[in-house]
Amino acid sequence: MANRRRRTSDNNNDPPPPTVCGSSTRHPVYHGIRNRAGKWVSEIREPSKSSRIWLGTYRTPEMAAAAYDVAALALKGSYAILNFPESNYSSMLPKSPTSDDIRAAAAGAAAARARANEVMSHGEGSSGGGNPVDK
Fold this sequence. Notes:
Elements: E1 33-36, E2 39-45, E3 52-58, H1 61-76, H2 99-122
Antiparallel strand pairs: 1-2, 2-3
C-alpha cells in the first residue's frame, strides 16, 4: 500500500525529503508553509473541506512549520505528517478543534520554537516574550 501515510510514531526523525514543485514560494522541506513577501506563512486545509485555516505569518520557516505541526495534530491526530516529529506538542494542542483555538495553539508552538532556536543560537535564555508574528 504505497499511498499510506506514515504515522508520527515512526522512528524517522529526519525532515521530509525536498519535493519538486512548480511554486517557488513553498519551502522545499517543511509542509504547510510558504514564503510571502519575505515572511513565512502557514496554513492548513481542514479535513473533508475545501477551506483552510490561516495559522499566521512568522519570521522563520521553523516557526511556521511548528505552527503547522500543532494544527496538523489537532486536525489529523496520529496520521498527521509532521515537520518536527521528535517534538512533543501534546501540551500545546487546542482544547477544541475550532479554527480560533487551532490558530492560538499554532501561535504558541511557533513562539516556543522561536525561544528554543534563540537558546540554541545564543546559548542563553529568552530575552522576553513577544509576538511570533513579524510586523
